[in-house]
Amino acid sequence: MMEKKLLIGNEAVARGLYEGGCRVISSYPGTPSTEITECAATYDDMYSEWAPNEKVAAEVAIGAAIAGARSFCGMKHVGLNVAADPLFTASYTGVNAGMVLAVADDPGMHSSQNEQDSRHYAKASKVMMLEPADSAECLSFAKMAFELSEQFDTPVILRLTTRIAHSRSLVELGERVDNGVREYKKDPQKYVMMPGMAKVRHVVVEDRIQKQIAWAETAPINKVEYHDTKIGVITSGICYQYAKEALGDKASYLKLGCVYPLPVKLIQDFAAKCDKVYVVEELDPFLEEHCKQIGVTVIGKDAFTLQGEYFQSLVKQVILGEATQSISTDLEIPPRPPVLCAGCPHRGLYYALKKLKVTVSGDIGCYTLGALQPLAMMDTCVCMGASVSGLHGRNKANTANEKNSVAVIGDSTFMHSGVTGLINIAYNQSNSTVIILDNSITGMTGHQENPTTGKTIKGDPTTAVSLEKLAEAVGIRRVRVVDPYNLKETETVIREELAAEEPSVVISRRPCVLLKNVKHNPPFQVNKDKCTGCKMCMKIGCPAISFKDGKSQIDFTQCVGCNVCTQLCHFNAIEGGNQE
Amino acid sequence: MNTKSIMIVGVGGQGTLLASRLLGNVLVAQGYDVKVSEVHGMSQRGGSVVTYVKYGDEVCSPIVEKGEADIILAFEQLEAARWLPYLKRDGAVVVNTQKMDPMPVVIGSAQYPEGVLEALEKTGVKVNAVDALNFAVQAGSAKAVNVVLMGVMAAHMDLSPEVWKQAIRETVPPKFVEMNLKAFDLGYQSGN
């Protein structure tokens, strides 16, 4: 018997890549996609890397596929926006060996800035898209995607959602089949996309779609299950599980494993056998619009929401009209939003910014949490890199802003797409102050190495980008480094750089407190006799500090002795730790 | 067998993910179909976190919904109250008596409610409140809170304690096995 394991969808995708003979993997971390590549890197038969961003990752995968090696790149939904440029044209060039791109959508925005539906990218780029409904399918679809990629000479997208990517279910493991590297033949008509060649390739793409539709009509992954035919459900991915649990044998199902391109006759035949047909899909009416276009009457977004995650009781309520019962206490329960960790180096930096009363152009990472109370020191957050370029725009809108506005961006985000914005600041001369929050790791996604850390995905030593030299090289003459645990120094340096008559970069440098090699100091405690209850120490929003019976207190299980709160106490009431 | 549902709730960073993995593996070893739904990313940073564990002959949806959970294992009092609507009327809440102030309470814009345990009991569900930190310290490490709680929960399930101990032996580094087994036992004994 084959070994069975309880894997999250992402680990199962990685296993599918391994079994499918993938040879080159390049990705940029992004919740909920990160563990695919993290897990793939544990297989020594595949080359894996973290690229600086998703565009680079996709281009690496395309290059490898054209060169004859099965390749992969993985990203979150917004990462596909970054990688869209190569994707649209790789659709024209096609591949040589198979290429698979995984994109993980985040309905409900557990860890994202928007709720975009990546299925539109499949249609827009005319690239086939598969959608698994559990971990076993994550594995089998990833393998199949390589076969389909080679059969139809196209990249293939594997679409996941958070609940698929981060849910564990049983998976049967198989053996790796590696067919080696295919021969590469020079073929500019196919691989050099300029107008003359691309016109010819566009014809190939349209022809390919027709062949894929024919395939989709009978493909085993587009599965029909007939039970009671009073209700028919057309669905895919996690929504199939919700519908199945809610309706069981009270409905028949058309489960689409391939969500682009979609079959026509298969859907028409299924609908003809059912009295009433619902489309159950999270986010946009992607399947629904196709059904309507091919003349199939369905109920979709008229009954279901466009927002958030679905769940089984929602399906039950909408289709069967059955509500669920629940019990609750009569307590008023305060929300518990995520917070910067106790000892997080970003806390000191935000406190300094708060004292300076600046406008903060923000970015994507753990430090986005600085937007929340009590620090509340972020004014904008749009996408990776937008802090730097947005600050330049703000300063060009009104040069008076140069004296009271900064950008904050993490080390990994700066590598991803902040550096191009900094080049723009230097080239087009705004007196902008860019603060790089260098915590020596990609934090929010769970500690991935990046080009500044000096380590590869496997932890091997490699060249580290020097942020100081990089800033200097693009034309920034004022580059300062501060320790955000030192509140006074941090505030003074930022004040000086805001006053300077030229662009500057401040590197706020202190490793993430959760890193294994970061030593924690003994915890502090509050001397109740000295504490006046002034609440100064509460202003930094440390989760280890709370207020009971008129005095502050420090939770010893959380405090890491960072020494930031002690700098705020005028009465020396915070004792212990390791105060040099 | 009908599908059974367990929810593990707490505050990001308390070790709920590890607990759900241990539970998942125990259930797989018993031959059940199992699905576990985890939370990664931003909500892990000190926010309210929830993990769903479902098992039975065939599990479809990985998520647990209001009125569906057989057991809620809460690592923190307020979180037990927050997720209570997910419990079945005849379900059980295993709750660590530890309290952690959420940020709105820290900054004074909200109150940590008084009498959470009493309010839980008033709803008529079975409540098993345990000072897991105290037991963990007794066992030898404050970090064993999650294993103590697994022990308490095990007392509410139909599996032999030996199955759990075997899983602990397989997952924990050798030098911590003894301490974790002790933590599990202390929890198991206080389960009712």
Automatic annotation (TrEMBL), chain B:
<dbReference type="InterPro" id="IPR052198">
    <property type="entry name" value="IorB_Oxidoreductase"/>
</dbReference>
<feature type="domain" description="Pyruvate/ketoisovalerate oxidoreductase catalytic">
    <location>
        <begin position="12"/>
        <end position="189"/>
    </location>
</feature>
<dbReference type="Pfam" id="PF01558">
    <property type="entry name" value="POR"/>
</dbReference>
<dbReference type="InterPro" id="IPR019752">
    <property type="entry name" value="Pyrv/ketoisovalerate_OxRed_cat"/>
</dbReference>
<protein>
    <submittedName>
        <fullName>Indolepyruvate oxidoreductase subunit beta</fullName>
    </submittedName>
</protein>
<keyword id="KW-0560">Oxidoreductase</keyword>
<dbReference type="InterPro" id="IPR002869">
    <property type="entry name" value="Pyrv_flavodox_OxRed_cen"/>
</dbReference>
<dbReference type="GO" id="GO:0016903">
    <property type="term" value="F:oxidoreductase activity, acting on the aldehyde or oxo group of donors"/>
</dbReference>
